[in-house]
Design goal:
By secondary structure, the protein is of the alpha+beta class. Helices cover about 35% and strands about 25% of the residues. The strands form 4 sheets. Strands 1, 2, 3, 4, 7 and 8 form a 6-stranded antiparallel β-sheet that branches. Helix 5 crosses helix 6, helix 6 runs parallel beside helix 7 and helix 9 packs antiparallel against helix 10. The longest helix has about 45 residues. The chain starts with 7 loop residues before the first helix and ends with a strand.
């Protein structure tokens, strides 16, 4: 039985709360009737205008912070794709009928992203509840001096919460910078692979905490005529994830130099990971390139499949040897390994999930997007191909997870 046809525009206009829809550039796209009534503005005074052109800070209040606080919240939502509930704000509003007159107002704002299918932020829902009368009513219960005391106490507590959140964000930003420097020191540029061409890329996430769990590694094995290529992704973020990443990357690099193939190397890594706090559920993929035999031998521990694009543009995902992540597979069960032939001039691409995964999107869509981009730019050298893949696959709002990428010309 089909339900009724819903007029969402009518629903939006009828919402009892004041709601504005803003573009990621913080321009009014639409507002409901409650917002017009609350703001004291007509629709044509809002739609298409920059929010802070309409509602600037009170020039007569040197301590005004409304614009700064709201701007920071809205930009954070646009950059991270995550909702932000603000502390109580004093944000005075100019009287629309009396130029130069400002009304003391208090607000409780919530800012929520509207996401496109690819995970980018297309709109920001700015919902505001005015609490000016509530603050004054609470104060009036006790008389004149009591009014001022309660109002000041409530506002002071809100400002303290706001300042605490600011300090937390600054601490997270400092941790991110330290983690990035640590990441860079542990992910040096790869050594030359003989006459073979390769390129690597690492891109941190946009958010302050989402960084430093991914790694890449290339190990040339001239005594066997092979090259071992690997990527991995540690669960978690920040300094701890960066430290775990460094340990696992080093362990896999060492194991690849003595292992008979990628399955054995990942098996050694899995045994080592059992004794590293924070290494559980790490994913990794390893590919051994046999240059003379033109064969790829590969194995995966819960990681997105490597991709191979042949000179004609046909893309194959190496997905026939996938096992659970580290620490999530039964003991004494051999890790799978598979083989695939390659043609001269093909491109091998290993990556971490930040390149292909998007909120509210099936992983198959991201893999197809990668395949299309890889086929389109297949003739480019590894450096230009890496940059092209990142340009095509990173959403306009930036990455929500860090991303490692390796491109090898076969």
């Amino acid at each position: 039985m089909n339900g009724p046809v819903i007029d969402f525009q009518a629903v939006f206009q009828a919402l009892p709360g004041a709601v504005a829809l803003l573009t990621p550039d913080l321009v009014y796209a639409d507002v409901n009737e409650a917002y017009l009534s609350m703001s004291g503005r007509a629709r044509d005074q809002l739609i298409g205008r920059y929010v802070f052109d309409v509602f600037p800070d009170n020039p007569g209040d040197p301590d005004a912070t409304g614009v700064r606080n709201l701007h920071a919240s809205l930009r954070r939502v646009a950059a991270t794709g995550e909702r932000d509930t603000m502390a109580l704000q004093r944000y005075d509003v100019a009287d629309s009928e009396q130029p130069g007159v400002w009304q003391e107002r208090y607000w409780s704002p919530v800012n929520v992203p509207v996401l496109a299918p690819d995970g980018t932020v297309t709109l920001i829902v700015h919902r505001v509840e005015e609490v000016t009368e509530l603050i004054k009513a609470r104060g009036n219960r006790g008389g004149g001096d009591r009014t001022q005391v309660l109002e000041a106490e409530l506002y002071t507590r809100a400002r303290e919460l706001q300042e605490l959140n600011k300090r937390l964000r600054q601490a997270h930003a400092r941790e991110r910078e330290v983690a990035l420097h640590l990441q860079q020191s542990m992910l040096p540029a790869p050594r030359p692979l003989g006459h073979h061409r390769a390129a690597v890329r690492y891109r941190p996430a946009t958010g302050a905490l989402n960084v430093c769990g991914d790694w890449y590694d290339l190990v040339d094995l001239p005594e066997t005529g092979r090259t071992a290529v690997a990527v991995g992704d540690v669960v978690g973020h920040g300094l701890r994830a960066a430290g775990v990443m460094g340990q696992l990357r080093s362990a896999l690099s060492a194991a690849s130099r003595v292992a008979g193939g990628p399955a054995e190397a990942l098996e050694v890594l899995g045994l080592y990971a059992r004794y590293v706090d924070g290494a559980e559920s790490t994913t990794a993929a390893s590919v051994f390139i046999d240059w003379a035999g033109r064969t790829l031998t590969y194995s995966s521990a819960g990681h997105p499949p490597p991709a191979v694009c042949d000179p004609q543009g046909a893309v194959t995902f190496l997905d026939q040897a996938t096992d659970p992540p580290l620490g999530a597979r039964p003991e004494h069960v051999p890790r799978p390994q598979a083989h695939a032939a390659f043609a001269d001039g093909s491109a091998l691409v290993l990556y971490t999930d930040g390149l292909v995964e998007r909120r509210q999107e099936d992983i198959g869509t991201g893999l197809q997007r990668l395949a299309d981009s890889l086929a389109r730019h297949r003739t480019a050298d590894p450096d230009r191909l890496s940059d092209a893949l990142l340009a095509d696959l990173i959403p306009p709002a930036g990455l929500t997870d860090d991303t490692a990428l390796i491109v090898v010309r076969l």
